[in-house]
């Protein structure tokens, strides 16, 4: 009985060690896969926020740090554009315009939502403020302002951020998230999350995933 007991305990120990090694190897692989999936969703939404901010600035000459204003702009407002009345290769039509003393340009208005955000439902637009995988509980961090450059040029600035700790699983992958954030801050000097823009410089709303 003593020998069988020892064999049983050894078998359990081997199984336990094998499971520990499996977890040690599998957890980082699973985390990397989950990170990619979640980052992709965050990037898609933050791209829409960036598009909305750029259009908002085109109309109002400044960015906004207020999601209510930005969402209302996307859902309800219009923009003004210009288009050619006739094909410039159509000599007859061009001659007619010249005879009427009209320029080959006409202005028109278009819906922000229907032109640039057809891929979003009305609910998606209302949820633009929320970071994916947070159950609509955590908003993107949105800042806007103005910056005076060394050459005394005043430029509008905007920055939108989603920290890793907001949308990655910090319960199952607590150590992996800690390591990821530490690596970003202390090794590669990168924001620990997904972001575009900068409040410190005019960087054309560049995203750190690009």
What can be said about the biggest beta sheet? 3 strands, antiparallel
By DSSP (H or I, 4+ residues per run), the number of helices equals 7
- Which stretches are low in confidence, meaning pLDDT under 50 for 5 or more residues running? none
Radius of gyration, in Å, reads 27 Å
> What fraction, in percent, of the residue positions are helical?
40-55%
Fraction of residues in β-strands: 15-25%
> How would you classify the helix and strand content by structural class?
alpha+beta
Distance between the termini: 65 Å
Order of helices and strands: HHEHEHHEEHHE
Would you write up a description of this structure?
The chain is of the alpha+beta class and 210 residues long. It has a domain at 29-74 and 119-198. It is 50% helix and 17% strand. The chain is built from seven helices and five strands, in the order H-H-E-H-E-H-H-E-E-H-H-E. It has a three-stranded antiparallel beta sheet. Strands 1-2 form a two-stranded antiparallel ribbon. Helix 1 crosses helix 2. The protein is elongated and about 110 Å long. The protein starts with a helix and ends in a 12-residue tail after the last strand. The model has no long low-confidence stretch (mean pLDDT 89).
């Amino acid at each position: 009985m003593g020998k069988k007991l020892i064999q049983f305990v050894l078998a359990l120990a081997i199984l336990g060690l094998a499971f520990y090694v499996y977890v040690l190897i599998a957890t980082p692989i699973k985390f990397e896969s989950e990170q990619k999936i979640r980052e992709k969703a965050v990037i898609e939404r933050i791209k829409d926020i960036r598009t909305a901010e750029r259009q908002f600035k085109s109309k109002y000459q400044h960015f906004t740090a207020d999601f209510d204003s930005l969402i209302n702009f996307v859902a309800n407002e219009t923009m003004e554009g210009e288009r050619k009345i006739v094909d410039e290769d159509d000599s007859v039509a061009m001659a007619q315009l010249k005879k009427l003393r009209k320029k080959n340009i006409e202005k028109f208005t278009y819906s922000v939502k229907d032109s640039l955000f057809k891929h979003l439902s009305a609910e998606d637009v209302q949820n633009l403020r929320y970071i994916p995988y947070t159950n609509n509980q955590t908003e993107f961090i949105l800042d806007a302002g103005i910056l005076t450059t060394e050459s005394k040029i005043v430029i509008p600035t905007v920055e939108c951020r989603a920290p890793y700790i907001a949308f990655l699983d910090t319960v199952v992958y607590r150590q992996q998230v800690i390591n990821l954030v530490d690596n970003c801050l202390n090794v590669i000097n990168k924001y620990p999350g997904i972001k575009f823009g900068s409040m410190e410089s005019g960087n054309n709303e560049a995203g750190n995933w690009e």
